[in-house]
C-alpha cells in the first residue's frame, strides 16, 4: 500500500489520521471554542498542531494539554511548542479524565479533530467523566453528527441521538468541507458543541436500561412500539404512560424512553 506523506509525516491510516489544512476553518473552529487564558483545554489528536498553533496565537494561555498516541507526532509537537504544551503520549480511550482534572485543579474543556473511526466510541467513553468536563468541541463525519443531534420524528434519530442527548446538550455549529483536510476524506464533517447537563432534564435512571430499551426499539425501527417492545411491555402498560403504542421507535421522545426505562427498572 502506497504511503501518504503530509509535511514530512507518514500518515497512519490505521488510526484514521486526517489533518486540517484550511486556515479559514481553523479560525472558525477556534472562534467557536472561544478559549480563555485561565481555562484548561485538552486537545485530543492534535496531529501537526494546526488548532494548537491557532489557539496559542490567539490567547496568552499558560499551556495547552495535548493527548496524542503517535510518537512521531508527539516529538514534533514538543519541538514546535516546547513549554506551551503538556503532552500525554497515549491512547485517549484509556485516559483517566478524573485524574487529569485533579492534576490541573479544575474542569476541562475538550476539543479535537477526531478520527472518524473512534469519534462515536469516544463520546460514549466520556459519559462517565461528565462531572469534570465543562464542554467539548469535536468534529464528526457529517452523517454521524446529524444522528447525534437529531430530534424525534426524523429518520436520523436513533439510539445514538438518545444516549448522547441524555448526557449532553448537543449544538451543531457548522459543516466542514472534505477539501479542508489532508488526505481528503470522502465525506464532509460537522463541528458540534457538547455541554454536559448539570441538572439533567430527564428522569434519572440506569443508563444501561435506557440503552437496552432503545437497542430493542431501534433494532426493529419499522415496527410499532407495541410489537418492538413486546418483550418488556404489554400495550396497556405503554398506554398508561401516555404513549401511543402504534408509534414507531423514531417517534418517541427521550423523556418517554426514560419513563419506559424507569418502569422496566422496577420490574
- Tally of structural domains: 2
Q: Which spans of ≥5 residues are poorly predicted at pLDDT below 50?
A: none
**What Rg, in angstroms, do the CA atoms define?**
21 Å
The overall strand count is 11
H and E string: EEEHEHEHEHEHEHHEEEHHHH
Mean pLDDT over the full residue set: 87
What CATH architecture label of the largest domain applies?
Answer: 3-Layer(aba) Sandwich
| Largest sheet properties | 7 strands, mixed
* Share of residues in helices: 25-40%
N→C terminal distance:
55 Å
Beta-strand content estimate: 15-25%
Tally of alpha and pi helices: 11
Q: What coarse outline follows from CA principal-axis ratios? A: elongated
Query: What is the class of the largest domain in the CATH system?
Result: Alpha Beta
Looking at this structure, what is the CATH superfamily of the largest domain?
Vaccinia Virus protein VP39
**SS class:** alpha/beta
Which strands sit side by side, in order, in the main sheet?
6-5-4-7-8-11-9
CATH topology (level 3) name of the largest domain: Rossmann fold
Structure commentary:
The chain is an alpha/beta fold and 267 residues long. It has two domains: 192 residues, 3-Layer(aba) Sandwich (Rossmann fold), CATH 3.40.50.150; 60 residues, Orthogonal Bundle (Helicase, Ruva Protein, domain 3). Helices cover 38% and strands 19% of the residues. A seven-stranded mixed sheet has the order 6-5-4-7-8-11-9, with helices on both faces. It has a two-stranded antiparallel ribbon with strand order 1-2. α5 links the parallel β7 and β8. α1 crosses α2 and α8 packs across α11. The longest helix has 13 residues. The radius of gyration is 21 Å and the shape is elongated. It starts with a strand and ends with a helix. Its main location: cytoplasm. Its EC number is 2.1.1.182.
